[in-house]
Amino acid sequence: MANERTLSIIKPDAVAGNNIGAIYSRFEEAGLKIVAAKMLHLDDKKAGGFYAEHAERPFYNALVSFMTSGPVVVSVLEGENAIAKHREIMGATNPADAAEGTIRADFASSIDENAVHGSDSAESAAREISYFFNDDEVCARTR
Ligand code: RTP
Ligand code: MG
Question: What pTM was estimated for this model as a whole?
Answer without folding.
Answer: 0.96
